[in-house]
Each structure stands twice: as C-alpha cells, then as structure tokens.
C-alpha cells in the first residue's frame, strides 16, 4: 500500500511539473509575440547605431550647410474661401537628405523602410508652412509617416499633410478675376548657413493629381524658390508652391448678371404703360428697385468686406441706377403732365368754356368721350393745338439767305418737352436701352 501511495505521489508531482512547464512555455510565447515589434525596433536601433549618436544635432554640424531636397505631390485642393482669404490643400511632402550616422552595412544594398516610431528618435528637417492657419498629419489608420534609410545614409522622409494657408486675394475684378496663391515652405530653426532647402528635381518636383474645383479651374502649377530675411535670426531658404486660379464666370452669370439685366429691362416696361396709370407704373418701379436691392445684398453677404470697389459692384450699382432713374423718369412725367393739364385748364377757364368739356375740345387729352358738336367750330382750325400756337406767332416772310426751319435753343427744347410731357417716355424708350447697351460694351471689354 505504501508503495502504491509513493507511485501516486510521484505521478501527481510529474503531472504538476508538466503542467507548470507547458504554462511557462505558453506564457513566453505570448510575451514574445507582444514584444516582437519592440525587439525588432531594438534590433533596428542597434543596426543604425541610434544610441551611439546625438541626433539633437544636425548632420555635419560645424561644417557647410546640409542640403535638403524637397518634392511635393498635391493630392487635392479641398476648399478656397473668399471670406477668410485662405485655401486648404492636401499633399505628400517628401524630404531627401544624407545622414552618414544612419549608414549601415548591407550585402544586397537594399533600403529599409520604417514608420513613425523611429522618426521620433533621429534628426529630421524642421520644415514648416509659412502663413499657415491650420495643419495636421493624417493618422488613419496609422500615422501617415514613412522613413526610408539607404545603406549609404541617404534618407527619404515622407508625410501626408493637410494645411490651410493664407492667400492674399485681390477682388477688384471679381467675379472676372484670377487669383495667384502660394504655399510657402521654410526651415524654422536652421538658417541658410545650416540648412539649404531646394527643389530636388527642379520644375518636376511639383506633381499634381487631377484636381477639379467648383468655382475655379487651375491655370498653372509651378514651383519657385527664394530667400526670406528675419532681422533677428538672418536669412532662410524658402520654397514656393505657386498656382493660378481662374474663376468660372457661368455661375455668376446665372446667379447675378442675368437677373440684374432682366430687372433693368423690366423697369423699361413702364415707358410703354400709359402715363396716367399711376398704380401700375409705381408698383413696377418699386418692385424692380427692391429686387435689385436683394441681389446686391446677397452678393455682398458672400464676399469679404474689402475697402475697394469690385467689378460686380460697378455692374450692380450701375444697373441699380438705371432702375432708379426709370422711377425718377415717371415722377418727372407725372409732374409735368399735371402742370400741363393745370395750365390747359386755366387757359380754357379764361376763354369761358366748361373745364371738363374744354379738355375734350382741346384735342391734346382724351380722358372723356364728349360730344364735340355742341361747340362752335367756325373760325377754328382742325388742330386746336396748332391753332393756338399759330395765333401767337405771326407769319413772317422768309428772309433770303436764312433757313426757314430755325433750330431750337436748349432752353426752348426743355420747355418744349415740359409742355409735351408725353415725349419724355418716347425719348426714354430710346435713351435708356442705348445707354445700358453702351455700358455693357464698355464693362465687358474692360473686365473680360
């Protein structure tokens, strides 16, 4: 029995030892899987000798400036705001430089690619965007950063960035304008003597995908470079991404110019309405004035409050002036008509005729259908207006060498129009369309 008990104890002990053995092996396997990336990074750091160098200092510190090549691929222009005077762009920014401290032995001369964890432990150019308002590096699903190291120490560092930058726009020709915007890159800490930024492949350093914008089309994309001076720190290399945007005019033709033209033409309809139809002509004039005010307010609300006059302002306010003058024209017609009628009534009262019948007999106004046979017609011409005119002007024999038809002076012409107010509408039917047509020719020839 004692022997059997010993055997059982030994078997149980072996089973317990075996269990703990498998548990320990399983735990080590899991731990190895969890630390595989960390161990790989440690091996990479040992390969690149990260701990052997001080990467707070630039490569070749104390010597000549380190050249850093740049190339950019523009993925999209996400938005252009006239109100804020800025644009938003998404791009791939790539840096090229050489750091011999990261050179490593390689039998096949192949590069090694790493993610953002190693980037934080080495030196890299501190390029920033001048005049930027907001910018960020994309981090979905991982941080969009790539580091590629070659055995000889050449490095490619690429990031995917969205940046919102200032664009000083000139709206003096809006909406027939084109805007020249630029995204500027510069080193923040390293002056020209320490770091030299340059476009790696010249004009081919800037590449773009197919970019479609709602209100603009891109005329040109080109890189350039220059120097920037800061009085406190010195000269810095600066790279420019320049692009020229031309605005699509068709949207504004539909939303602004065509409605404005229609309102101006509609205001001319009042010239064909009888001058005694006061409600019709006044309501038409007020409607067109209010509509023009609404159009001007809508355009101004979507634009920055600039201190100079825009091209669209010239067109809108000139059109508004034409509409306003059509209302003033009817006010003048109504006033002179009233004056003319009052003068006729006074003249006929002095002659002894009844006022209402005399107006019908006068022949110049036909507001009432009155039987004219009750009035004596002997000694009167068929045209009473002409007879009254001829009675005041005696017939004079023509003088040799002078014209029979005399020219009216300006004052006489004005008096003639005031005494015949219906002619104001006749002249307005010709003058207003011709003047507006001439204005359009001048406007579009200047701004188009």
TrEMBL record:
It catalyses: chloride(in) = chloride(out). GO terms for molecular function: chloride channel activity; extracellular ligand-gated monoatomic ion channel activity; transmembrane signaling receptor activity. One of its GO terms (cellular component) is chloride channel complex. It is a multi-pass membrane protein. It comes from the Eukaryota. Its main location: membrane. Residues 50-248 form the Neurotransmitter-gated ion-channel ligand-binding domain. It is found in: Postsynaptic cell membrane. Keywords: Cell membrane, Chloride, Chloride channel, Disulfide bond, Glycoprotein, Ion channel, Ion transport, Membrane, Postsynaptic cell membrane, Signal, Synapse, Transmembrane, Transmembrane helix, Transport. Residues 256-344 form the Neurotransmitter-gated ion-channel transmembrane domain. PROSITE patterns: NEUROTR_ION_CHANNEL. The chain crosses the membrane at residues 7-31, 249-270, 282-302, 314-336, 430-447. Belongs to the ligand-gated ion channel (TC 1.A.9) family. PANTHER family: NEUROTRANSMITTER GATED ION CHANNEL. NCBIfam families: LIC. This is GABA(C) receptor.
């Amino acid at each position: 029995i004692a022997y059997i008990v010993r055997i059982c104890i030994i078997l149980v002990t072996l089973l317990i030892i075996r269990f703990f053995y498998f548990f320990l092996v399983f735990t080590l396997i899991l731990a190895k899987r969890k630390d595989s990336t960390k161990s790989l990074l440690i091996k990479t750091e040992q390969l690149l000798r990260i701990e052997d160098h001080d990467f707070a200092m630039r490569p070749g510190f104390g010597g000549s400036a380190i050249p850093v090549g740049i190339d950019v691929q523009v993925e999209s222009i996400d938005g252009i705001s006239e109100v804020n005077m800025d644009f938003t762009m998404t791009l791939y920014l790539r840096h090229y430089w050489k750091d011999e401290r990261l050179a490593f032995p390689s039998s096949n001369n192949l590069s090694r690619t790493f993610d953002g964890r190693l980037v934080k432990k080495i030196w890299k150019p501190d390029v920033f965007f001048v005049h930027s308002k907001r910018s960020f590096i994309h981090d979905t699903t991982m941080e969009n950063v790539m580091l590629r190291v070659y055995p000889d120490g050449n490095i490619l560092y690429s990031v995917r960035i969205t940046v919102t930058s200032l664009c000083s726009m000139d709206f003096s020709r809006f909406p027939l304008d084109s805007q020249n915007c630029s995204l500027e890159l510069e080193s923040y800490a390293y002056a020209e003597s320490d770091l030299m930024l340059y476009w790696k492949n010249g004009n081919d350093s800037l590449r773009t995908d197919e970019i479609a914008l709602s209100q603009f089309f891109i005329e040109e994309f080109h890189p350039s470079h220059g120097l920037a001076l800061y009085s406190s720190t010195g000269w810095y290399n600066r790279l420019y991404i320049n692009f020229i945007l031309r605005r699509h005019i068709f949207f504004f033709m539909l939303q602004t110019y065509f409605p404005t033209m229609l309102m101006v033409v509609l205001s001319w309809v009042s010239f064909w309405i009888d001058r005694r139809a006061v409600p019709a002509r006044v309501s038409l004039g007020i409607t067109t004035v209010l509509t023009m005010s609404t159009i001007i307010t809508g355009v101004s609300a979507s634009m920055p409050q600039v201190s100079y006059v825009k091209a669209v302002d010239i067109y809108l306010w000139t059109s508004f002036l034409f509409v306003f003058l059509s209302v003033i024209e009817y006010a003048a017609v109504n006033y002179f008509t009233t004056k003319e009628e009052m003068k006729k009534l006074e003249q006929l009262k002095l002659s002894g005729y009844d006022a209402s019948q005399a107006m019908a007999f006068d022949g110049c106004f036909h507001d009432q259908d009155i039987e004219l046979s009750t009035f004596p017609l002997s000694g009167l011409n068929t045209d009473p207006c002409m007879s009254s005119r001829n009675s005041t002007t005696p017939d004079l024999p023509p003088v040799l060498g002078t014209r029979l038809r005399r020219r009216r002076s300006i004052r006489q012409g004005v008096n003639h129009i005031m005494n015949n107010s219906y002619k104001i509408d006749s002249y307005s039917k010709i003058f207003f369309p011709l003047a507006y047509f001439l204005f359009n020719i001048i406007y579009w020839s200047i701004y188009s």
